[in-house]
Amino acid sequence: MPDQKWDPPTALSTAPIFDDAVYLAEALHLPVNETEDQLDAELVLLASESGIADPYRFVPAPKTIARAISSMTLDSDERSSKSIHSHETQSTTLTSAPSRTSRDHLYPSDRLSAKMLTRSLSRSRPTRSVEKHQQATPCPGPGIGSVQCSPLSASPSAVSLPTAQRQPRPRKKRGSAIFNIFRKDTRFVVASRLPSCLTRDDSNACTANVTHHRHHRDAKLECGHSLSAYNVRGHMLEATNGGAKSATHLVPNCCGNPLPPSVLEIVLTKETDISEKDEGPSPATSTFRDSGYCEAGIPAIGLPNLTKGDIVADNLPSKRTRHAPINIEAALANEAFKSFKTQQTEQFEHVSSFECTQRKALEAHHQTTLQRLKVRHDVTKEELIEQHTEDLERLEERQLLAEHDMIKAHAQETQNVCTALKYIEAYCVGTREEQDRTHTVSEDDLKKLERQKATQRELPRKHASAINVLRARQEVDMERRLEAQEAELEQLDADYEKEVSAKEAEYKKESERLEGLIATRRKRLLQRWDLRFEMWRKGWEEQNNTTLDAKLEHETWPPRKADHAITISDASALYQYLEAAVSAA
């Protein structure tokens, strides 16, 4: 009997090898409870903020969530107030939970905060006329930061409900604060466009004139008269016609007092507008005066005669055509791109090492399973052989007992035959001296004597034959028992081979599953890197005012390590497979 005693350990499952949590923690080094969907959503949000259209063409869209993880709702954390799906589809219905900026849930306790949010929202949602202005008006120069050239990106679905669900509420009409921005920016644009011949006081006078004209439609003079534009124009005509008579009448006046320049500029501005409408709007003034956000218009006095080419050259940044030659080497030598490539190489190393660890763990689990099967088979076979030996020993013992009993019976029979022969001979021969009388021996008595002698002569052969028959029967029983035992051992070996084949097929199937999972994870990882590269490309193009059509290649994956060179850290969740393999060996 072998001294080895098989204590079957607890069989491990392969679930941790395929577990996403282990992959996220050990390969991607993500925090606990953070998934790839959340990582993709955060990256998509950053890409959207970077100006990339439709980031989900790079990464797969989330399957279990209908909005971005970072979207802010009343029952979620405070991170963002924009629904990604409503932003993409421009839906007019409620596609997600109401956001912080939505007015769809006005409870009595929230009316004050909703009004405050409505004010801030009105600044970020231009009206239809504002959108028309943004489409018709060229963008100011790069120095102006308060005017947005692109349409505002507030999602209509985040703050809207179906018409049937809306309830009208009386609201006080007030001017939108967004027009003040355009008024202030327009004055700033005009001041920046004034020629150098105008002094600072002149520009201030223009600004004062616009403000004065906004609040007072009729100019009020020092003499107390309030002159309309028609009256001011009459004084100017009178001064022009009387210029030949007296030099004092060259200046338009009222009650002997010259009209201030601010009053004259009102009329001159209107006349300039009329003349420009007749002649056709010039690019220098119509761009700012026809915007619709300056009530008084822009004074045309002293403005340089800018051509259309000058304005286009000032407003539009110089950008190469798409087919212009670009120094790709200079772009790829960018420090940010090098940092990206370094990060990608490091991540590829981590992921490749984890993949090798997965393969090593799966192989170790397979070897452990085979080792368990072999140990169990060997132990079972040894126990069966031992049982067979005991059965044979018991059978042989029974056979020996049977033979001993037969020999003993033969000896008794031989003794009985000898005793009978002795008495028959004594009767027939008459050798007994104590017989008182003589008797007659018949033929039958003699025949009995002969038969008894023959029986005695044949008795050893008979006994030997009986012993041989017994031994032959015992031998047949032994052979049958050995054949049965051999069949049991062969069936045991066949079952073991069948189990090994099943485990080999299972290992092959799980290996293919692991390789497919590795390929899927690599593809998703490369998709995230594609989006990161696209974000870098977008920033580089904006920084260099050009386009980059070259395909940004990924770093090559590290070569697969040999099995003997793979080591699993004891801190890894997959170390248990290597430990189980060592203990099973």
UniProtKB/TrEMBL annotation:
<protein>
    <submittedName>
        <fullName>Trichoplein multi-domain protein</fullName>
    </submittedName>
</protein>
<feature type="coiled-coil region">
    <location>
        <begin position="432"/>
        <end position="506"/>
    </location>
</feature>
<feature type="coiled-coil region">
    <location>
        <begin position="378"/>
        <end position="405"/>
    </location>
</feature>
<feature type="compositionally biased region" description="Basic and acidic residues">
    <location>
        <begin position="76"/>
        <end position="88"/>
    </location>
</feature>
<feature type="region of interest" description="Disordered">
    <location>
        <begin position="73"/>
        <end position="175"/>
    </location>
</feature>
<keyword id="KW-0175">Coiled coil</keyword>
<feature type="compositionally biased region" description="Low complexity">
    <location>
        <begin position="150"/>
        <end position="162"/>
    </location>
</feature>
<feature type="compositionally biased region" description="Polar residues">
    <location>
        <begin position="89"/>
        <end position="100"/>
    </location>
</feature>
